[in-house]
Amino acid sequence: MIAPSVEAVAEEYEGKASIFKMNVDENLNVPQQYGIRGIPTLVLFKGGQEVERIVGAVSREAIAKVIEKYV
Q: What domains can be seen in the chain, in order of their start residue?
Protein backbone atom coordinates (compact mmCIF):
# COMPACT_ATOMS: atom_id res chain seq x y z
CA MET A 1 0.00 0.00 0.00
CA ILE A 2 2.78 2.48 0.82
CA ALA A 3 5.44 0.76 -1.28
CA PRO A 4 5.44 3.48 -3.99
CA SER A 5 5.94 6.17 -1.33
CA VAL A 6 8.76 4.25 0.33
CA GLU A 7 10.45 3.66 -3.04
CA ALA A 8 10.16 7.37 -3.94
CA VAL A 9 11.69 8.39 -0.60
CA ALA A 10 14.47 5.82 -1.05
CA GLU A 11 15.38 7.42 -4.37
CA GLU A 12 15.15 10.93 -2.92
CA TYR A 13 17.48 10.12 0.00
CA GLU A 14 19.88 7.83 -1.85
CA GLY A 15 23.35 8.40 -0.44
CA LYS A 16 21.95 10.13 2.66
CA ALA A 17 19.90 7.35 4.23
CA SER A 18 19.55 3.62 3.73
CA ILE A 19 15.98 2.46 3.29
CA PHE A 20 15.01 -1.20 3.40
CA LYS A 21 11.76 -3.08 3.04
CA MET A 22 11.08 -6.33 4.84
CA ASN A 23 8.46 -8.98 4.22
CA VAL A 24 7.26 -9.86 7.71
CA ASP A 25 5.76 -13.13 6.46
CA GLU A 26 9.29 -14.27 5.59
CA ASN A 27 10.87 -12.84 8.77
CA LEU A 28 8.45 -13.80 11.52
CA ASN A 29 10.77 -13.01 14.45
CA VAL A 30 11.49 -9.38 13.51
CA PRO A 31 8.02 -7.91 14.19
CA GLN A 32 8.00 -9.58 17.59
CA GLN A 33 11.53 -8.39 18.34
CA TYR A 34 10.58 -4.76 17.64
CA GLY A 35 7.04 -4.88 19.01
CA ILE A 36 5.43 -4.30 15.63
CA ARG A 37 1.70 -4.89 15.88
CA GLY A 38 0.41 -3.21 12.73
CA ILE A 39 1.39 -3.28 9.09
CA PRO A 40 2.66 -1.08 7.58
CA THR A 41 5.15 0.08 10.19
CA LEU A 42 8.23 2.12 9.36
CA VAL A 43 11.02 2.15 11.94
CA LEU A 44 13.79 4.74 11.73
CA PHE A 45 17.18 3.89 13.17
CA LYS A 46 20.10 6.21 13.72
CA GLY A 47 23.35 4.88 15.10
CA GLY A 48 21.75 1.46 15.50
CA GLN A 49 19.04 2.77 17.82
CA GLU A 50 15.37 3.26 17.01
CA VAL A 51 14.62 6.99 16.92
CA GLU A 52 11.12 7.13 15.47
CA ARG A 53 8.28 4.95 14.25
CA ILE A 54 5.50 5.54 11.73
CA VAL A 55 2.50 3.23 11.85
CA GLY A 56 -0.12 3.09 9.13
CA ALA A 57 -0.38 4.32 5.57
CA VAL A 58 1.18 7.75 5.23
CA SER A 59 2.18 9.92 2.29
CA ARG A 60 5.62 10.21 0.75
CA GLU A 61 5.79 13.73 2.13
CA ALA A 62 5.09 12.52 5.68
CA ILE A 63 7.82 9.88 5.43
CA ALA A 64 10.32 12.39 4.01
CA LYS A 65 9.50 14.91 6.77
CA VAL A 66 10.39 12.36 9.46
CA ILE A 67 13.59 11.25 7.69
CA GLU A 68 14.65 14.86 7.18
CA LYS A 69 14.88 15.32 10.96
CA TYR A 70 17.69 12.76 11.13
CA VAL A 71 19.83 13.27 8.00
A: 3-68 (3.40.30.10)
Side chain identity, residue 29: N
Taking the model in full, what pTM does it have? 0.87
Neighbouring CB atoms inside 10 A of 19's CB total: 17
Instruction: Print the SS3 string covering 4-45.
Output: HHHHHHHHHCCCCCCCCCCCCCCCCHHHHHHCCCCCCEEEEE
Buried b (16+ CB within 10 A) or exposed e, 46-61: eeeeeeeebeeebeee
Evaluate whether 67 touches 18 at the Cβ level (below 8 Å): no
The secondary structure of residue 55, as a DSSP letter, is E
Preceding peptide of 31 cis, ω within 30°: no
More confident: 51 or 1 = 51
